[in-house]
């Protein structure tokens, strides 16, 4: 088992973690806002406050919006590693680790295509991102 931290799972986020375990990236979407997706998961829309929300499966594709290269030790991580802001094709930004790509500005090209991957930590799967097609 990984020594990386595990998330706290709440009833409101259970669907997200169940989806990840099944290899799916699930998001909430708001009906009154035109089915616009949002993240992180919660039972109400962050834009309008409506509870008329649904669960949708995201494509798992996005682009590198921003990043930092962390040089400091963190539980379960060996520096340097990349923490990325990913802009999903659905218009949602997610913060994630970037896997299978050197933590080097030469390899981290803004707007580069990314795809979701799932890191197993015991019984939990954690959505992470990697360069699309596996090429760094």
Task: Write up what this structure looks like.
- The chain is mainly beta and 136 residues long.
- Helix content is 6%, strand content 40%.
- The protein has one helix spanning 14-21, and strands at 26-30, 36-38, 53-57, 61-70, 81-88, 93-98, 113-121, 124-131.
- The strands form 2 sheets. Strands 6-5-4-7-8 form a 5-stranded antiparallel β-sheet, with helices on one face. A 3-stranded antiparallel β-sheet has the order 2-1-3.
- The longest helix has 8 residues, at 14-21.
- The radius of gyration is 15 Å and the shape is globular.
- 20% of the residues are buried.
- The mean pLDDT is 95.
- Helical proportion? under 10%
Q: Give the total of beta strands.
A: 8
Shape: globular
Structural class designation? mainly beta
The percentage of residues in β strands lies in: 35-45%
Low-confidence stretches: none
From the N-terminal CA to the C-terminal CA, the straight-line distance is: 27 Å
* Overall mean confidence score, pLDDT: 95
Strand order of the largest sheet: 6-5-4-7-8
Order of helices and strands: HEEEEEEEE
Give the C-alpha Rg: 15 Å
Number of contiguous helices: 1
For the largest beta-sheet, the strand count, sense and barrel status come to: 5 strands, antiparallel
